[in-house]
Amino acid sequence: MENLLLHPREDVEYAIQETSLGVWRRFLFPDGQMFAEFRSHESIFGMPWVHITWGRSPETMRRVTAKGVIAIGKCAIGGLALGHMSVGVIAIGQLGLGCFLGIGQATTGVVALGQLAIGGLIGIGQFTCGHMAIGQLAFGEFVLAQVGMGTHVWDTRGVDKDAFQFFRQLLFK
Q1: CA pair distance 90, 77, nearest whole angstrom
Q2: Which tens digit of pLDDT belongs to each residue from 108-146?
Q3: Can you tell me the distance from the alpha carbon of 17 to that of 8, in angstroms, rounded to the nearest whole number?
């Protein structure tokens, strides 16, 4: 069997489906695996509005990174990025690196929600940090946690009066 990483295939015949919104490219491998890619017709600054990838490219046998205003794929980069590894203004994925919002297992953002959440302003998760941190183990300025560390902490060891006032205002406005 030839090494496709050293000698990329150039003779790939894709099934092309043109729609009013964009173009689908698909390839079915003999073993039943499929590669599919959708790219919208419309773009902004050279980036498609929507880019979706699935599977490994038959030309390189590598995954194609989805890059678009809305990017969906195993690896996704865009305004709204959805994927196992996602980077974007809003990133949702197992590893979500968000500029504004990150949601995932391990995530960052101004607002971060995840098992490991590192938030610039708000962090909510199992292990978390942020100006306001809510979690099982949390670090921050205002902390609500099972075990917390920070300036104003409300945890199983005690309640800081400023932390109580801060979280009370959030919950009972």
Answers
A1: 10
A2: 999 999 999 999 999 999 999 999 999 999 999 999 999
A3: 24
